[in-house]
Structure formats: structure tokens, C-alpha cells
Design brief:
With 162 residues, the chain is mainly α. The chain is built from five helices and no strands. It starts with a helix and ends in a 9-residue tail after the last helix.
């Protein structure tokens, strides 16, 4: 992966994390900026890594579907493939439209399906299924980790002393 693609993936991850964290911050007005930045940076890095793993996971699923392994090293991000992903991550803010965000992710997945189909020899629909399964699996895994972190880091409610 080129440094430009890595930078775009990290920016998309940071934007996606901001879209998830900032609504929580709005509900808790007493949070400090350093604490929010401390949440935002690792979350953005994790989201960027998940975005980077999406084509690799789809390639791995395609290898499992095919009887013989496809030729090549795998599917990697290119700048033209990352641009729609970054746009969908920028639009991740819930007030700007979760449905539009979902539609853009479907569009990015469809964009990944074409190169995957060409590289593996699967049909477009088979490749789209691998991309969708990879995206859904990564999404479920990240959401499970997110909920686990929230559960572990949740502080107990303090009862007022009267």
C-alpha cells in the first residue's frame, strides 16, 4: 500500500470514529477535550485498520469459496477505491444521514466486488457476496469490541449522599 492510501484510510477511520464518538460527547457535556482526543485517536486507528482489512478479508473468503486458490497476491486498496470509502466515512455523522452513509458503503463494496471478481475469477455476484460477508463480519467484530470496551470502562453510578 502506498503512503497516500494509508493516509486516506487513516483519515477515513478518524472520520468514522468521530461520527461515532461525537454524538456521545454531546450527551455528556462535562467531558474534557483531552479525554475526547484520547478516545478519538485510538478509535480512528482501529477503524482505519478495519477499513484496510476489508479487501484482504474479502480475498480470503473468495479463496475459501473457490476450489483452487486464485493467482495473485490479493486485493489491495488503490486511491480510486479509497476515495468513495473516505466520502462515506466523512458522512458518518448521524445528523448528516445514516441511510446515505449505508448506501455509500454499499457503493464502496460494489466497487470492491469488480476488482475481486476480476482477480479471482468469481462472478460479480459471488465476489459481491464475499465483500458483503467480509464487511459484515468486520463490522460485527468491531461492534462487539466497542461494546466490550464500553462495558469495561463504564463507571458505576454514584448515589448522592443526603
Amino acid at each position: 500500500m502506498s503512503p497516500g492510501v494509508i493516509a486516506l484510510l487513516l483519515f477515513a477511520g478518524l472520520s468514522e470514529a468521530a461520527g461515532r464518538i461525537l454524538p456521545l460527547v454531546a450527551r455528556r457535556p462535562g467531558m474534557s477535550r483531552t479525554f475526547v482526543a484520547g478516545l478519538l485517536l485510538p478509535a480512528g486507528l482501529v477503524e482505519g485498520v478495519v477499513f484496510a482489512l476489508w479487501p484482504l478479508t474479502a480475498w480470503t473468503l473468495a479463496e475459501l469459496v473457490l476450489s483452487s486458490p486464485p493467482p495473485g497476491d490479493g486485493l489491495t486498496w488503490t486511491p480510486s477505491m479509497v476515495a468513495p470509502l473516505m466520502l462515506s466515512a466523512v458522512l458518518a455523522f448521524p445528523l448528516l444521514g445514516p441511510l446515505l452513509h449505508l448506501l455509500l458503503f454499499v457503493g464502496v463494496g460494489a466497487g470492491l466486488a469488480g476488482p475481486l471478481a476480476a482477480a479471482t475469477g468469481l462472478g460479480w455476484w459471488g465476489a459481491a457476496g464475499c465483500v458483503a460477508a467480509a464487511g459484515a463480519g468486520l463490522g460485527v467484530a468491531v461492534e462487539a469490541v466497542r461494546r466490550l470496551v464500553v462495558r469495561i470502562s463504564a463507571s458505576p453510578v454514584q448515589e448522592p449522599v443526603i
